[in-house]
Amino acid sequence: MKNLPMDVLRSFVTVAELRGFTQAGELLGRSQPAISLQIKRLEDMLGSPLLKRSGQQLDLTQPGRQLFDYAKKILSLNDEVLAQFIKPEVSGRIHFGIPSEFATALLPKIVGRFVQSYPSVTLEVTCDLSKNLLNAQSDRIFDLVLALHDDPNAKRNDRVKVEELVWVTSTDHQAHLQPTVPLIAAPQGCI
Q1: Domain covering 92-170: architecture
Q2: What pTM does this model have?
């Protein structure tokens, strides 16, 4: 039994998607004649014409449409397998700042996944108040900071999540009837 070469399948899919040999060649870094030879080789292997020209228009034949669907699946699976096993070696150090209130819930997952995915990277974690982390970030002490802030005019405002502040009480409790309610809050600047 013969095997379908991945590079030939990739050329076929690219030609079909871009509707042209020259465009596919430019994208794949090959000449137009090289792409044409690959398609001819694939047609010879399968014993069916895969593409047809109608004037300037390039279309798939019925067998070409069938192969196109299979080829997309095969290439996707091929790319998935390669991504799973062949990971670029990343090394170095990343200094990550995170508020203490997130650390307990988020850090074990973050650190576990990170260390597993990037064993050659040293991850330094600092837990502190959001205001301190953000001040240090402006001095470029951290590579990445996950912090709470409510300043819509902040220079860097890559918002991850917005949460609405709500008050919750038991139906048996009458706090809403009190003129004042004691509140324990985080230090100034922590939101």
Answers
A1: 3-Layer(aba) Sandwich (3.40)
A2: 0.48
